[in-house]
Structure formats: C-alpha cells, structure tokens
Amino acid sequence: MIEFDPLDIQICLRAGDDVAEHGGAVLPPIAQASLFRKATMEELHRDLAREHIVSTYSRGTNPTVKALERTLAKLERAEACKCFASGMGAIGALLFGLLKAGDRVLFVGDIYGPTLELARRLEDFGILHDQTFAGDVAAIAPLLREETRLIYVESPGSMLFGVADLPGIAALARERSILTALDNTVATPLLQKPMELGIDFVIHSCTKYIGGHSDALGGALLGPAERIERIFYDAYMLLGAVMAPFDAFLFLRGLMSLPVRLRQHHADALTVARYLAGHSAVSRVFHPQLGLEATMPRNWRGHSGLFSFELADGSLARAMAVANHLKLFGKAVSWGGAESLVITGHKREPASEVPPRIPAGLLRLSIGLEGADALVADLEQALA
Ligand SMILES: *Cc1c(COP(=O)(O)O)cnc(C)c1O
Q: Its family (predicted)?
C-alpha cells in the first residue's frame, strides 16, 4: 500500500506568487546573488530588521531558496520553513537555537549517527540527553524529566526502520509543555505529515529523496513561524549553513518527479524485501511494511525504498563479502537516488563502535530505479 496525492506537489509548487514574480517560469530562476540593493537607506534599514522574509543578503534569505521553503512549508502543512546547506545544518540550528545549558533532550528511535554525535558535543555546553529506542508512550513517559525541553524522534528510523507512536508522543509532550521534533527524511513529505499529528518541528535531509539524483546536499527545518524566526536569528544566521540558490533550484526540480520516483522505489523495495524474506541465507528483513517489525501506524501512507536485512550467518565479514559481490548496488553512504546502494554496519573511527543495536550481519539497501527483477537477480547471485 502506498497512498498519497500526487497533485499535492503540483499545488504546493504553484502556490505563492512565484509565477507573477518570475514572468511565468514554471520553476523559479536561480537568483545567483549574494546581496540585494535597496532604493533608499531607509528601505535597507527596514529590510535588515526582517531579513528572515526579505532578500537582503543571501546568508539570510534568497529568492530561489525562499521558493523552495514556501513549497516545503506547504507540503508539510507547516507555517514556516528554513532551508540549510545540509540536513545536519538544520538539525544543528534546531538544537543550538532552542536549547540552553541545563536543558535535556530525549531522543526516541533509531537516531541518525551524526545527530547523536552532535548531542554528545552539546554535553560540553551543559545540554544533556536521554535516549530510548522504543517509540511508544509507555516507554517514553518515565524518561521525561523536569528539564526535558525537547523530544526528538526519528520514525521510521534509517537503519532498523522502527516506527514511533507520533500522535501519542505529541499529546504526551503537549501535556508537559515539551516541544517535539521529527526527522521525516525516510518518509518524505508525501508519506507522513507530522504537523497534522501535533509534532512541532519537522526536519528533512533534502539530500535524499527530495533531491533524488545524488547531486546536491541540503536540509530543511519546518515549524511554527514564530519559532522558526527565532531560530533564524539565534542560530541559522550565526552558524551560516546556508543553502546555495543553485541547490534550491535542484531540489525544486527534484520535487517535481518525487511522486513517480517514490511509487517506483516503494513497489520495487517491497518486491526485493519479500524476496529476501523468503531466502534461506537471510534471518530478518527490517522493512516496516512487511509486518516483521511493527504494524502500519495510522498516520503513515506507506514506506519508501530504503530497508535492511540480516544474514543468517550474522558476521560483518560475510555481510561485506555479500555487498562486494553485488554488481548493481553501489557501495556508498546516503540514499534516495536512481542508483541502488548498499552499506553494511561499519566503524567510523577506532574509538567509536558500531551501535550495538545494529546486528553485525546487517546490509542496508537503497532501492533505485533499475527495476526489481534485475535487483533480485543481482542479490540471488551475491547470496549464492
Ligand atoms: C542523511 C540524513 C541526515 C543528515 O543529512 P545531510 O544532508 O547528510 O546533512 C539526517 N537524518 C537522516 C535520517 C538522514 O538520512
């Protein structure tokens, strides 16, 4: 099952005044400019006080980036959006902009590694965190403390694909006046709309499905207008992880084809996952829609093309050998493009272990657009 309205993208892309602004261009042109001249000094002073909405200097606002922000805000049903040079830029600005010494963050789910590394760095500045893999309210409630300011969730996660009870978490957080954020990268803005469930902030790495062509890095932070404005001045403008106008253009271009790409990624991933689930060399498949990990949450319109599986011979050496035998799957990090990719658990550096929850014999696949038959045949020969 995959259920979304492909018209959603077109409506959101055409919203706003871009057509009038850009002489009818279907995609807004690239405003390759670092600064914007004003007619008078008075106008310049006025615009400097509202840099979050008016193009004055491109470290603040740029017309092409603004067009992407407007589109993503509409797609996510958010009041406001700010785009960044990468997903980590957006996550960094959220944490720096929102938290102060003494605050705590509760991380829920299968959190992206660098996000946790950033949280560890923040300990040096007096911002502490707690963590749980379980995404249900019963597991989360006892971990909330007086100082908890933010619940940060990843659902579905991007290695083991666990799903959290988002409406339940949002309701619990509201009761305690705690803010909530969700990294929605795996689901894309088409398959899950967290704002409609009461989540306060949504994060995207545009680098993945939104771009979709493995050629641009970007991130987005969405939320209430007042809060995004504060984060704009308190973190974004000061940290400087700015999205380039050309990249904003590529993401708008990517969004146009997201509905068709997503349907294909979804269907082919499900075919490949079902094949693997029936293979004797495979012990487990982590694909949230196969019903092996969890039931489909009510807020969710289907899964994209990313999933993982564990070998029955669960060693890292065997997982690496299988990955090396794959011909169609690129050995690479990241995901969301036209080419299929594979990655095993790995050690980033001698001091940091593979997170213990990730089984040694795990392979994660990003299913591209080569067609399910060719991908199944490739896995067949690699597992033989
Ligand atoms: C890739 C990714 C990020 C980070 O995004 P970048 O654009 O690489 O900085 C954050 N969260 C998830 C789930 C990701 O997959």
A: Belongs to the trans-sulfuration enzymes family.
